[in-house]
Amino acid sequence: MRFFFLALLVVSTAVPPLHALDKQPAGAYHARRVALAAELHGGVAVLFAAEEPVLDFMPYRQDSNFYYLTGWNEPGAALMIVGDAPQASTPRAYREILYLPVRNLRTEKYTGVKMDAATPDVTEASGVDHVESMTELPADLTRLVASDHALATNLWTQPDSTAAAALINFTATTLGTNEVPQPHDVTTLTMPLRQLKDEGEIELIKKSSAASMLAQRVMMKWWVKASMTERAVAGAMTAVWMENGCERPSYAPIVGSGINSTILHYSANDRTMQDGDILLVDAACEYSMYAADITRTVPVNGHFTPRQREIFNVVLGAQQAAINAFVAGKSTINDRDRHDPNSLDTVAYNYINTHGKDLHGQPLGQYWLHGLGHMMGIDVHDPGVYPVVLKPGMVFTIEPGVYIPDEKLGVRIECDFLVGPDGKLIDLDAALPHTADEVEAVMQGK
Length: 446
Ligand code: GLY
Ligand code: MN
Known about the structure:
Blueprint: H1 2-13, H2 26-39, E1 44-48, H3 64-70, E2 78-82, E3 95-100, H4 108-111, H5 122-126, E4 130-133, H6 137-147, E5 155-157, H7 162-174, E6 184-185, H8 187-195, H9 199-223, H10 230-243, E7 248-249, E8 254-257, E9 278-282, E10 285-287, E11 290-291, E12 295-299, H11 306-325, E13 332-333, H12 344-353, E14 388-389, E15 395-398, E16 401-404, E17 409-412, E18 415-419, E19 425-427, H13 436-443
Parallel strand pairs: 1-5, 3-4, 5-6
Antiparallel strand pairs: 1-2, 2-3, 7-10, 8-9, 9-12, 10-11, 13-14, 15-18, 16-17, 18-19
Helix pairs in contact: 6-7, 9-10, 11-12
The protein binds glycine and manganese (II) ion.
EC number: 3.4.11.9
Protein name: Xaa-Pro aminopeptidase
Cofactor: Mn(2+)
């Protein structure tokens, strides 16, 4: 027994590997915390890590904002950022603290070794100026508010966090405050920061794009055949992502053949593909927490029918029209009104509505319902208040589609774009087939 505890001690004093994700240098996360602090105007932000998933078979994924600010990939942690407040009744200077839960050696038998505030070198490993035990968080916040009651109205947390609500309630109770202060939504401050990607983030997105493109190519070349199931295609693509260092799909893969190609977020993937079907494959992966989002539409037998090709070309033309119209700092994305001439949605819609017809001779605009694109980053749908004006450093999708249930024909073409420092649009998926001829060439092994 004594030997057991000794052995446990030896294991438990070593610094465990933090995680298997590619992390950016500590300075990148620190810069984001400082940038957030500048928006707090003397306030205090407390963010909590994501909780463990409820179902055992679901892998852990860190809260996106928490990861953006820390690169920390463990549950049970919290981050406090104290903004500069030189004029406060008790003046405060910038301070950042990572709170870690106390290690539980029994749980670690199931989860693997964790770090806590007592782990040697934990401050260096975390890259945060101060690391404390989670048990200190309520007392630290209470002390701060007690020293400056105005702070109660300048607290920032994630809006849906039960831990944050409990912390604020506890602070109010401890201070004997009748009214529990309503914290502000910290994600409104992280959103504009997250929209502008730094170089390290762009490198990670390029890695998720590379693995996602490879999987799309493997899909076209090897896996799309009559009598194959949609799910087998999703599985084969998942294997490619994981072989290439990605941890998971960045959303449930959409592999829709025939009528399923017209269902925007179809994910049952349980149909067997038939000769002559169209197949819409909206599937991509996440590399070290950064998403890609790619859709290609292909003919199951490797040859588009004339009608499939006609609709494909309308969608491709709409995407190209939006690309051609793009002007950094002026163009917007995801404008559902489709009236503003600066909106790329308007450009794509006008193209679709003036090219091609349905079987009743009607224009095709009615068959495209969703927005033209969205911001992309740590989340496949990164936060944005739409329509967003597109600026250098932003990454977003352009994904027009036409979905005609009567013809069992849905086509979406989706690529991810970066606005370069010079304002030029960079297609991150340029290496993947775009045109109908290019798709057929890969499918036919040319
Ligand atoms: N790729 C799924 C979506 O953008 O909604
Ligand atoms: Mn998308």
